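User: Please fill in residues for this 131-position structure.
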């Protein structure tokens, strides 16, 4: 089991990575699904590849991709990934890093960066193999 602190350290190491749709390489390109996936794998999780999804996925499409390496939880405080709304659709993911902040790969920002925690969470997810 990967300690949560190690996972968060790997997420923080992603800061500044360019945002690239379906990107899965830290330092080269990540998207919102690639951020938690690549960080967990950098810690040795050995997660399977995620399914492809469209540039503007539906909530269901994104959830299908998440199911490859995550399990849903109702415990938001211990979730590794938050699925949040962009407009009317829950099509974006953020990683809580503490102190009311999240790390996110959002196209309008251009790079993976820290932002304030959103208040519009749809679902919460735990990554298999991360404490």
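Assistant: Residues filled in for all 131 positions:
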């Amino acid at each position: 089991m990967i300690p949560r602190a190690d996972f968060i350290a790997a997420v923080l190491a992603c800061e500044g990575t360019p945002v690239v749709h379906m990107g899965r390489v830290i330092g080269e390109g990540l998207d919102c699904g690639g951020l938690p996936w690549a960080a967990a794998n950098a810690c040795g999780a050995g997660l399977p590849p995620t399914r492809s999804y469209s540039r503007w996925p539906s909530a269901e499409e994104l959830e299908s991709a998440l199911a490859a390496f995550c399990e849903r939880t109702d415990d938001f405080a211990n979730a590794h990934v938050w699925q949040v709304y962009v407009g009317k659709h829950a099509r974006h993911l953020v990683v809580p890093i503490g102190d009311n902040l999240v790390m996110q790969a959002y196209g309008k920002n251009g790079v993976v960066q820290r932002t304030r925690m959103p208040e519009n969470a749809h679902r919460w997810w735990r990554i298999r193999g991360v404490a």
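For context: The first helix runs from residue 4 to 12.
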